[in-house]
Prior knowledge:
The protein is globular and about 70 Å long. By secondary structure, the chain is of the alpha+beta class. The protein has helices at about 30-35, 55-75, 110-115, 120-125, 165-180, 205-215, 240-250, 265-280, 325-330, 330-355, 360-365, 430-440; strands spanning about 5-15, 25-30, 40-50, 80-85, 90-95, 100-105, 120, 140-145, 150-160, 230-235, 290-295, 315-325, 375-380, 400, 410-415, 420-430. The strands form 3 sheets. Strands 7-10-16-15-13-11-12 form a 7-stranded mixed beta sheet. A 6-stranded mixed beta sheet has the order 1-6-8-9-3-14, with helices on one face. It starts with 6 loop residues before the first strand and ends with a helix. About 45% of the residues are buried. Helix 2 packs across helix 5, helix 7 (about 240-250) packs across helix 8 and helix 7 (about 240-250) packs across helix 10. The protein folds into 2 domains: about 5-215, Chloramphenicol acetyltransferase-like domain (Chloramphenicol Acetyltransferase, 2-Layer Sandwich), CATH 3.30.559.10; about 230-440, Chloramphenicol Acetyltransferase, CATH 3.30.559. It comes from Cinnamomum micranthum f. kanehirae.
Amino acid sequence: MAIPHRVKVLNTCRVSPPPGSVAETSLPLTFFDVIWLQSPSVQQIFFYQLTESDTTSHFLNSLKLSLSLALRLFFPLAGTLSPSPKTGELEIRYKDGDSVQLTIAESDSDFEFLTDDRAKEMALLKQLVPDLPNSDSDLLSVQVTVFPNSGFSIGVSIRHVAADGTSTMQFVKHWASICRFGVGSSSAESVPVYDRAVVPDPNGLNRTFLEQQQKGDKKVGSVGRARADTVAATFVLGRARIERLRQRVAMARPHVNGEKLPDYSPFSVACAHVWVCLVRARAESGSKTAQFKFDSGCRGLFDPPIPAAYFGNCIRPCFVRVGRADLAGENGIWVGCEAIWGVIQGVKNGGDDDFLEETDGLIERLMEMGGAGGRLDWLSWSPKIGVYGVDFGMGRPTKVEVISMEGVGAMSLMEGRDGDGFEVGLALPRLEMESFASMFEEGLE
């Protein structure tokens, strides 16, 4: 007999910053924001265990109050994406009384099963994260789901046009700090910087990207609804495993006399292994090219640097292309690693001038994902951001899931929950996931 997995909504309310605490404010979109104008929302789930001493009702009240106080500082998330009354250009606008939707729910699902690494139906996880009530204008929605006598989860949906991963976690960590320590605690994150003037746009990229978006006929990263048999699973790459993969890269690399092996980063090694396994698991024959995309942070790329506390988007898409047959072949781990590492080094050495010049067709390339131009595998989260330090007063998360990868051919790469290496999150059709899992382990032998 199948085990039920019901989520019952207990209450839905709106949470706003304290009345009168924030002046009406409008934030124009920078070209970094416009890149993600049509991108799906970023959705995360933080799972926490309950202890015998925890009082659920008291904790839920604390979460709600601290969310209101956190929005006082991160007020744009309570605002809306709407046309400017003066220019007609899209902007993020906040006025007193604007709010976010908070849903309180209860689930009878097996908490331990949901928080382990085994493959599980994506539909089970999707129940734990809210959709944006108005997907065109709302920017943030939150759902707290209680698993009686086991734990709870906090699901967060943030529109990508409002914040990248760094800014998203800046908000979540600030909210958690207030919930745990109260307002004004020394553990609170730095005050966000909203000044759009710190983002230079000498080449008019904002207008260029808007025009490229208007030429597209589908949303960035959208490939329609995910298949009903889609499952999510987590794969762990500890330091020892990454070192083993690095050795495999060295063995697969063509030998050149006197040439030293590049100091490939753990990130490039891990991404290459996952990319190779994905391509082999799919066994696609239509396209000759394998494509991979990851995002690179740009706050320190400009001169002068954009403040680390800048709130919004400040990442650039980086594209990697190799021959599919080469990547799926015997030396695929080196092919993928060398290509990813080369793009990373190019970003480091190129600086802001290269990015400002290399814009032709950027939006079109993002819109290729899942299209006829060949499947593009998308890394949707970076381990540099850090998610396992988010403590609302109940300890560290038992598990964190990034589930916005559903339906867009994406993966997530987060820091290991025990501080060892990386966690790889994937959403694939079940048979494809089984094939990937087998190849993932074989590649580590």
